[in-house]
User: Which sequence fits this backbone?
């Protein structure tokens, strides 16, 4: 059943993402994106996954949005005119619409068999302890791998983005060339 | 309208919006944002299936989403670093102009 | 309220629960259908009144305290002993013309203080102010607090970027860099308390610190990792709320006023309100995590209502922040970042390790050994790290390479 | 020990904070409108014109030589010479300023006008409480507002005032002696001078002014 809160949250999420993809100014896009992410986090909370909703807010709104904004600040080249869409924008929209229609078709077909389920499964209350226990019991290997991956990504991103000028090892090579 | 079906439709819509953005936008950073959106749409699917799936106590959906958020954050960081280096080389983030492969 | 009056039993128990009973009395009166909405409003409204009032009191406390520390009086013109100064400031902020720069981005410029204040207020929903006086008992309360805290950086950027002025952008970038690099240690400094209490919910954390041995409470502060954790938490909290030694983003002497330079009138006052609310929220979280929330410091003092203890501890922490502001000079940007990544973060990680160690070492009679081991494990690296922080290398001759 | 610098700082501010409630002499602030810091003698704010005797108009020492107007760096002095003459502090017939304005919103109280004034007519005042409700005319002080008596001068700068008075008295004595030593020459010079001025005088008023100037000169000399 489509409760009002679900509709509002879904609307915020989709509207935020849609405006994020359509605005001219890149920074406005990122701000609209954060609205979309907040709507999505609301959806997670509505679906009962409290821990995931809060992590989503913390990781995406707190970190990825700021990262994107910093990237925009560093690559903002005031000179060039800011056209929004690349030349072949129409085909892009057509492909996206096609993908959406096929997905929607598949979803509606899958559910045409089962009637609107009246039995409303009670929201399973997930506590942080349960997540912690399963994380460290069944999923301990992925947890360690994720830790490793995040450290690698952290150091990798810094090395990639480091400016060759301040990197001491770089300057000798250029000097010798 | 089954609530699971509603969630799936919303995530499909989000996925389509992200895909449209990724395909049509000219600025490299906004393409990356489009990909982030597609990732988020997938996360929404996981949570929907966990919530309305057969046995939610297994917490697979929730944990998969947590790992997926972590990977997406790492991917965003490295992606933006790559964009910065590309900007430093090409002096523009306009994807249409990054078409020559000279080193 | 009438139910309360005729009960007449103004025992400690009733006084402690006075607000809870008042709320129930009010709720009993509202019609059934409106009950959830009314209970939410009844809880939210006092919060929205008490903490801005505390903000007003703190502005006067701060200016008089700083004055007294510098051998001068501080404001004493408006009202007796200057106590009406916040009212004067408030009216001034309301009357001042709200100048929006022409080149500013109207929408984002308007929404920045709104988001800032909203995020600041949201943080209070999970903080237990008294015995069963918490607005929302979230299972992952502390995580909610930090999630809302991270939204603040975005609003700082919105403010800095939308005013389209070099100083505000510079201030915003400095503020965000500082807030991000101090949010990691803030979360890590909170982790030991969560580990010891075994739950993310703030109410459980306060419960874990209840109880007294003899007259001394079981606060997390009185453990080796608690002292270091609380110290790191306070340092990170000062940096997170852009105060005193870390107030580089709004360094008045350098870049005028940081990210809220292009704001005037009420929006400027909103930024100040949000900043102080952020400071109260983080110090209230510090109280919940390390100082036993609303529990009395000594067992025989627990007849005093719980919310009075919470606010006395909050005022004590506020005075500590003012005291630090009156004493320490401002840190340079590189010192600030170096301090965060080279000293606070390693110490916070070590502190998490020591909390684990503390948990698995035998308690009971061998407690003093546990204390000694943990204290040693913490003290040695602390000294080594601080030595490495001292600038050993001689500063090179300053070579000016102009815009090459 | 690490952090002992911070601890020392904290104890210092704590001692100030609690000490200020204990001993009041720690607090050095002066509550301005109620209490005032005693005036240091060498302090200065805006210039004023000194006049001797009771009547500010006649006793004004200024002879409108306009040196100060020329010397003033921010050009905030404006003088209009008078047509007729009046005896100055020393008794010699001199012009006097019909109009003497100082724009104290421009004046930077650099005291150059005082240094260049040959007649000690302009001195620096110490009055700094000069709020006015009108930004332009309120801050443009005319001759009347600028004129202040010599004993006020003694009040604010006693040593300097007495030195100036001593110099003036000596000068008066010198001119009196000169006037006494050469009265016959002066009388002869005065007679031909008088008709000459009568002949050249164009405006109607020279007769009384010319007549009035010689008489007080003799009076002073006796």
Assistant:
């Amino acid at each position: 059943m489509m409760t009002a809160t679900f509709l509002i949250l879904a609307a915020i999420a989709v509207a935020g993402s849609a405006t994020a993809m359509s605005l001219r100014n890149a920074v406005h896009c990122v701000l609209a994106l954060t609205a979309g992410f907040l709507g999505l986090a609301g959806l997670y909370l509505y679906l009962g996954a409290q821990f995931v909703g809060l992590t989503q807010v913390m990781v995406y709104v707190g970190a990825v949005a700021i990262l994107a904004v910093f990237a925009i600040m560093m690559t903002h080249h005031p000179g060039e005119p800011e056209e929004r869409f690349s030349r072949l924008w129409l085909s892009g929209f057509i492909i996206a619409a096609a993908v959406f229609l096929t997905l929607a078709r598949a979803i509606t077909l899958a559910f045409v068999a089962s009637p609107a389920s009246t039995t409303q499964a009670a929201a399973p209350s997930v506590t942080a302890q349960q997540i912690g226990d399963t994380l460290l019991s069944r999923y301990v290997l992925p947890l360690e791998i994720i830790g490793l991956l995040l450290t690698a990504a952290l150091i990798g991103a810094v090395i990639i983005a480091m400016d060759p000028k301040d990197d001491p090892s770089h300057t000798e090579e250029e000097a010798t060339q | 309208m089954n609530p699971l079906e509603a969630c799936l439709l919303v995530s499909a819509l989000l996925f389509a919006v992200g895909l449209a953005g990724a395909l049509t936008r000219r600025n490299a950073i906004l393409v990356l944002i489009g990909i982030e959106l597609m990732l988020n749409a997938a996360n929404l699917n996981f949570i929907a299936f966990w919530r309305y799936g057969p046995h939610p106590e297994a917490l697979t959906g929730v944990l998969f989403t947590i790992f997926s958020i972590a990977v997406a954050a790492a991917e965003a960081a490295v992606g933006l670093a790559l964009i910065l280096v590309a900007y430093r080389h090409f002096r523009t983030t306009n994807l249409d102009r990054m078409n020559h492969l000279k080193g | 309220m009438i139910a309360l009056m005729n009960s007449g039993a103004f025992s400690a128990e009733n006084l402690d629960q006075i607000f809870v009973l008042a709320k129930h009395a009010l709720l009993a009166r509202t019609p059934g259908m409106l009950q959830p909405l009314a209970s939410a409003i009844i809880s939210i409204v006092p919060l929205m009144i008490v903490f801005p009032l505390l903000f007003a009191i703190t502005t006067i406390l701060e200016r008089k305290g700083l004055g007294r520390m510098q051998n001068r009086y501080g404001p004493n013109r408006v009202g007796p002993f200057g106590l009406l100064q916040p009212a004067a400031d408030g009216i001034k902020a309301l009357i001042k013309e709200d100048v929006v720069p022409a080149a500013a981005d109207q929408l984002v410029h308007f929404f920045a203080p709104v988001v800032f204040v909203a995020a600041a207020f949201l943080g209070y929903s999970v903080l237990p102010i008294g015995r069963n006086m918490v607005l929302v008992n979230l299972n992952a309360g502390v995580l909610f607090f930090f999630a809302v805290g991270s939204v603040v950086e975005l609003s700082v950027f919105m403010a800095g970027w939308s005013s389209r002025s070099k100083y505000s952008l510079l201030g915003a970038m400095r503020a965000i860099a500082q807030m991000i690099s101090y949010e990691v240690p803030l979360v890590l400094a909170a982790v030991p308390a969560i580990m010891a209490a075994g739950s993310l919910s703030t109410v459980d954390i306060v419960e874990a610190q209840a109880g007294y041995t003899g007259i001394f409470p079981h606060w997390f502060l009185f453990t080796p990792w608690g002292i270091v954790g609380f110290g790191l938490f306070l340092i990170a909290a000062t940096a997170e709320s852009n105060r005193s030694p870390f107030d580089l983003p709004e360094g008045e002497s350098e870049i005028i006023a940081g990210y809220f330079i292009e704001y005037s009138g009420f929006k400027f006052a909103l930024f100040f309100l949000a900043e102080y609310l952020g400071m109260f929220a983080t110090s209230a979280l510090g109280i919940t995590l390390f100082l036993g929330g609303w529990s009395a410091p000594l067992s025989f003092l627990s007849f005093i209502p719980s919310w009075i203890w919470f606010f006395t501890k909050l005022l004590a922490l506020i005075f500590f922040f003012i005291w630090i502001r009156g004493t320490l000079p401002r840190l340079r940007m590189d010192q600030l970042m170096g301090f965060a990544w080279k000293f606070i973060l390693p110490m916070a990680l070590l502190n998490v390790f020591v909390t684990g160690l503390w948990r698995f070492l035998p308690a009971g009679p061998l407690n003093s050994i546990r204390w000694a081991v943990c204290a040693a494990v913490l003290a040695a690296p602390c000294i080594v790290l601080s030595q490495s922080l001292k600038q050993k290398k001689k500063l090179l001759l300053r070579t000016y390479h102009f815009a090459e | 020990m690490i952090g002992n610098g911070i601890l020392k700082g904290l104890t210092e501010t704590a001692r100030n904070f609690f000490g200020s409630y204990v001993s009041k002499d720690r607090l050095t602030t002066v509550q301005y409108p109620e209490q005032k810091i005693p005036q240091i003698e060498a302090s200065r704010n805006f210039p004023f014109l000194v006049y001797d005797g009771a009547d500010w108009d006649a006793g004004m020492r200024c002879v409108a030589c306009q040196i100060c107007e020329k010397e003033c760096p921010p050009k905030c002095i404006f003088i209009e010479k008078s047509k007729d003459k009046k005896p100055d502090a020393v008794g010699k017939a001199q012009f006097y300023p019909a109009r003497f304005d100082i724009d104290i919103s421009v004046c930077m109280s650099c005291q150059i006008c005082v240094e260049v004034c040959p007649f000690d007519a302009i001195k620096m005042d110490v009055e700094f409480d000069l709020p006015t409700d009108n930004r332009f005319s309120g801050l443009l002080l005319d001759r009347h507002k600028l004129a202040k008596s010599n004993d006020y001068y003694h009040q604010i700068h006693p040593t300097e005032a007495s030195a100036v008075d001593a110099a003036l008295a000596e000068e008066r004595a010198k001119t009196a002696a000169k006037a006494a030593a050469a009265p016959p020459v002066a009388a002869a010079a005065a007679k031909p001078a008088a008709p000459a001025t009568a002949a050249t005088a164009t405006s109607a008023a020279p007769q009384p002014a010319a007549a009035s100037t010689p008489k007080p000169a003799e009076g002073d000399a006796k």
About this structure: The radius of gyration of chain B is 17 Å. Chains B and D do not touch (no CB pair under 8 Å). The mean pLDDT of chain B is 88. Helices of chain B lie at 3-24, 28-52, 60-90.
